[in-house]
Amino acid sequence: MNIILLGPPGAGKGTQASRLVDNRGMVQLSTGDMLRAAVKAQTPIGLKAKAVMEAGELVSDEIVSGIIGEALDGMAAETGVIFDGYPRTQAQAHSLDTILADRGRTLDHVIELDVDEDALVERITGRFTCASCGEGYHDMFKTTKVADTCDKCGGHEFKRRPDDNEETVRTRMAEYRAKTAPILPIYEARNIVSRVDGMADMDEVTVAISTILDGADA
Ligand SMILES: [Zn+2]
């Protein structure tokens, strides 16, 4: 079982990916992490990537493909893979087909965590935490019981992350759409794209993803 997991920042992609790793023994392949690992391990491709990066150039698709191939070669054939942050372009999508086919693997599902942009803005911009103990709150969903007083430690100072503002959230959504727009039609044409409501409760999202994965096993 090999899948691509897609979702904008704030959709809970990281949580769902780590649950797939824990519950199903899948391996998450994030190209950024793999690249750093290959450089560190000084694999042949890692050394090539290092030279390119040191020259201040972007790592080519060929290098990225090589790194994914190296990672897959080091894995048992039955280990399922979650691709994260890859592919980003049509060329990479076609490379991925080749990389998988060369190893007798197929891409089984592309799962997109769908979010309602306005609801996501509300969810993210409402977050704040206690400056003393770190307890998390939300303007609408989890307010303090007593105004301006932390339920847990009684602190009166709260902080918000500077990134948790509407403009940043909307910019990230636009970036996400721009990144996935080139590749989604390829997979839609193969009927392997499933959408899950990323605004639902995390456990419900996990169940929905399981249903999709198990449906293909049956
Ligand atoms: Zn507190």
From TrEMBL:
Where the record annotates domain Adenylate kinase active site lid, the positions are 127-163
Keywords (alphabetical) are: ATP-binding, Cytoplasm, Kinase, Metal-binding, Nucleotide biosynthesis, Nucleotide-binding, Transferase, Zinc
Metabolic or biological pathway: Purine metabolism; AMP biosynthesis via salvage pathway; AMP from ADP: step 1/1
**Which EC number(s) does UniProt give?**
2.7.4.3
| Region annotation (NMP) ranges | 30-59
CDD domains associated with the record:
ADK (cd01428)
Cellular location(s): Cytoplasm
Give the family per the record.
Belongs to the adenylate kinase family.
Subunit structure as annotated in this protein's UniProt entry = Monomer.
Q: What is this protein called?
A: Adenylate kinase
Q: Which gene encodes it?
A: adk
